Input
Amino acid sequence: MLVAEGVHKRYGGARALQGASLSLYPGEVHGLCGENGSGKSTLLKIISAQVAADQGRVSLDGRPTHFGDASRALAAGIATVTQERALVDDLSVAENIFLGPRKPRTWRGVDWRETRRLAQRLLDSLGCDIDLDAPVGRLRPDLQQMVEIARALSTDARVLILDEPTSSLADDEVESLFEAVRTLKGSGVATVFVSHRLREVFALCDRLTVLRDGEVVGTGAIGDFDERRLVSLMLGREPDELIAGDRRPDHLDDAVLRVRNLRVPGRLDGIGFDIGPGEIVGLAGLVGAGRSSLLGALFGLEQETTGTVEVEGRRVAPRGPAQAMAAGFGYVPADRKEEGLVLDMSVRENLLMARASRRTRLARPSRAAERRAVEEAVRDFQISAAATDAPVSRLSGGNQQKVVLAKWFATEPRVLLLDEPTRGVDVGAKAEIYRLLEQAKERGLAILVSSSETSELLHLCDRVLVMARGRITARFDRDDADEAVITRAAMGVSG
Amino acid sequence: MNREGFDAGRLARTAVGQRFFAVLVLLVVITVGFILTQERFFTSGNVKALLTSAAILWVVSIGLTFVMLAGGFDLSIGSTLALSSIALGQFVNHFGAPPILAILLTLVFGALLGGAVNGVLVGPVGLSFLVVTLGTLILFRGALNLWSDTKTEQVVSPLLDSLAFDSFLGIPYPVWIMVATFLVALYVQRSTYFGRDVYAVGGNADAARLSGVRVGRTIIAVYAISGLLAAFGGVLQTARIGAASPQVGESVLFDAAAAVLLGGTSFAGGLGGVGGTIVGVLFLATLQNGLSVSGVASFWQQIITGAILLAAILLDRIQRQGLPGFPRRPGTADEPAASAPPGGGG
Output
């Protein structure tokens, strides 16, 4: 019923889609697979008319459609539910389903009885039982997801796009979501399902389309695929034999950082590993696999952390960043503008901020010592800041990230935790950051790097730990691993 | 910030870059205007009176500046001032404390009201500063009426008298107190680790916390400073009228907020400083004094103050983000044009 043909799309110089096609039949669940950057999101946005295609056509029920804007696509019956929640926590389930001006009305105003009746009917059609009057914020995540789907269906949608709906759901919650999707199939709704978890794709979908570099590299019934074939299509080559990761905590006698059985309810489960002096260990995994939670737990940001953490043989249990720093940790957060820097403050003050935290508050900073520290940082890190007194907001992204790194190097940590250290920086700054981490390694630091770019981890790290659903699921030495192997492990493909 | 000798050019450039520069220019303009038109304005007696009358607003505004730099606000300063005044009267009259001890006790009392009540609830507990300080605004006002039985009580003390009315080297004590308070505040703001924490917490509390700044303690400290200086205002008020009165301090909040904002300290925190605040205080005091010397009705002062406050904030917004509906050209988008280097509040 919905057909997209020969769709091309460019963003600036980058080709996002090159002649991609997709066809949907009533009552099917169609899986859309591809690595990050393969063009999945762009294709979905074109189908749902959020962006216009450069070339190609999209037709619904045989009629060519050039949707002008997203609201017209919605009126035509195409609804999208993304991984980002778009619910108002304090409003009831019924109100969220009919959010905005779409509530049924009478001459007295909103017709609440009719609203509730329609909401109940939508939830019944999904086969789920939710209290209509409960505030959405109190629901379980999967039920919140249901409310979003119900809202999408309230527009009488016949095409439902689910963009990574399961990334924040637990296993049993995923199953209840699948039940609802299967119920919808019965009523003729076509569903597009995007997930990085191949197991889910095989469990739910009837047909598959695989994208790579903006092109469709495979499409067909689910029976035509197996996990191996799917992964090799996505990656564009045959993956090497999967090296069965050693699941025991690898033990080092001279570990700088030793973690055993680290647990945060709902996020991390039984994490254990060692990092030796001068070793860089990478954390791979999908978004939501628990990489950031692990770094945060080590830095004292998670409330209910249990398990043992040792730094150079001393047991530590930091509660809060200040204690974590005293224990020898440094932490470069993923979002430098929100969490790494005070943008209105100068380069100098940002550089000195973490270093200063160990001093008495009423002490007077030694200007000579500080100037030396700033000069060293600017030299070592080649921060191109003409004036270190300028606000750090005026620097480029790469230079800002170098300021964050320099700030932490100045605290002389024993263990450095980095979350996506090269996100949003240019190639030159990236190489620079790699060089600085190599230097830190030579000084004997233990370094734990989380990154969603597998190639970066393979370039940088001595070993790579792969996480999925809060656990370490595979461990590789750099020489034993390649991107395909790590990607497969992160997606939960076994054997 | 390294000072190698005096450099007038650099000083001038620094002044122009400050957020309070426009208000500083206005202050000079109205001062010159009053000097030229009112011969009674620029007499030593009137200048002393002008400065002395500004003393209470001055110390209270400096306290409020620290709270606002840290991204908060303290609605309770007027009530804290009045409650401290009543406390001072009680300490002197009913507990028989020697005046100097009574004054110190009052200051500690004010710091506790600010730090242990406002500070703890806003910082570690994490409640909204508006709700907390609105609550204590009402609570402290009720407590002081209860404690004083709503009666004004004379406080007789030579020390308090001389604090308000005597001079040293020909300069009234209140002016000495103003200078000393300002210099201490400037030092704390610019030259201590604590001062940097305040800017960091106001600029980006998450980043500050992840850098090891103890955000909760910093917030307790700024509210303690605010309470301490409000209590100091209460001491000066008691000294000036020679009595502890439950009616004082009801309008000081509005004047102090106007002075701090005129002085360029941002409501969002992290920008500004006590240097701007004293310019704001002097502007308000000069305007009031000059207009009353000119025989102009006092409500004109309110109209002018309000209009200039709005104009100053609008100007700041335009400098930072362009006119509404006229987005700034790309390339300049994230550069706050009028941002002072933090700590450069001199």
Summary: Residues 53-251 of chain B form one domain.
